[in-house]
Amino acid sequence: MASDTPDAAAPATATGPNQLAAAFGRELSLASRSVHADDYINNHRAVAPPMHVSTTFRYSRDPEILKQWSNIDPNAPHDSHIYSRDSAPNTTRLESVLSSLLGGPTLTYSSGLAAFHAMLVFLNPKRIAIGGGYHGCHGVIELVSKLTGLRQLELESDADLAQLQPGDILHVETPLNPTGEARDLAYYRRRADELGCYLTYGVDVILHSGTKYFGGHSDLLSGTLTIRPDHAVTPQPDGKPNWVDGLRIERLFLGSVMGSLEGWLGVRSLRTLELRVVRQSESAQRLVDWLAAEINTPGSEVGGLVAKIQHASQQPEAQDAGSWLRKQMPNGYGPVFSLWLRSEDHARRLPSKLHLFHHATSLGGVESLIEWRAMSDLKVDKRLLRVSIGVEGWEDLRDDLLQGLRAL
Ligand SMILES: Cc1ncc(COP(=O)(O)O)c(C=O)c1O
């Protein structure tokens, strides 16, 4: 009789998610984990992950081991599934890589906003403190407010923060969309601890729009929630399911799972995460330094058109080696920055003068994008352009911006 204990018949080389750390006696680098963290799931001889489209998976033929809502295959215990609204091979593999990279159990969703929604449904706070940043999250809060009376408070206001109570959420976006500036997570962690609140983008839950850097090729929509490991322990002190099980059960009913194609694309993209993002961030830094120097040079032709640049590297703390910003972003300040042109008309026209930047929304892909931000966010200043740097040569991007500005 086949056993349904997960590891009973697994190949010796495929013992589980911690097998590599055990073999090396230490945690491997992010670059290595991006390529190998899901090896334990791969019980096929193919090196590249297969694409599975099935929505449903056969139960065991042995009636003796049939167990409700369980379908462990002893030959592939980590790749056992029932129905793809719960789990499926490609998204499971993606989740295993992300859990390794992000340092906590990670669930995937059909988009970043679907992940944000799932988190609000699960934690069901009475209040959420949130600053500016991505406008879509404010849209989700409005929807949830309609159902639960959730109240939105202002993150930057001490008077508002004082109204938060245990079980409420502090939502900290960093780096900020669209400006690329960062926020001090350690500061907000301290505030959340004082208030007994949950902190997103810090420790309790990390929310990512996987559509951006994880996908990285402008071809997949996804969102992820990473849970602080001690919230994933069973049993929880209050007797409820642990956060990961709870979120997974709720996802089954929300139905906002990622598709298998997206899961497959996600794994493929994560293999090069570090290569892409480090390069994108370095190129962005060179461009920001060049633009900032131009803006500050009296009489410069660039400065005549561009009034201001915003990026985490331009925050004063970037100059202070001991600052929270340098600690929080030791490997670079990210590929997104914002430009404020002197006139709305120029901001509207600059994208049409460029050859290497697509005029499009979103960010994080290998292609450089520029967006006259008023196109997708009706409330922003109409002189604002958001820039997301891709993997092209930075000098080419610089020359493109220069010729585009001259053409204005
Ligand atoms: C900070 C932030 N949060 C959430 C989202 C939503 O992600 P998605 O578009 O994958 O739903 C975005 C998308 O731009 C974002 O920038």
Automatic annotation (TrEMBL):
Database matches in SUPFAM superfamilies: PLP-dependent transferases
Gene3D superfamilies: Aspartate Aminotransferase, domain 1, Type I PLP-dependent aspartate aminotransferase-like (Major domain)
InterPro entries hit by this protein: Cys/Met-Metab_PyrdxlP-dep_enz (IPR000277), Cys_met_metab_PP (IPR054542), PyrdxlP-dep_Trfase (IPR015424), PyrdxlP-dep_Trfase_major (IPR015421), PyrdxlP-dep_Trfase_small (IPR015422)
Keyword Transferase among UniProt keywords: yes
UniProt entry keywords in alphabetical sequence: Pyridoxal phosphate, Transferase
Cellular-component GO terms for this entry: cytoplasm
Cofactor names: pyridoxal 5'-phosphate
Residue positions, PTM N6-(pyridoxal phosphate)lysine: K212
A biological process from GO: transsulfuration
GO molecular function, one term: transferase activity
Protein family: Belongs to the trans-sulfuration enzymes family.
Official protein name in the record: Pyridoxal phosphate-dependent transferase
Organism: Bombardia bombarda
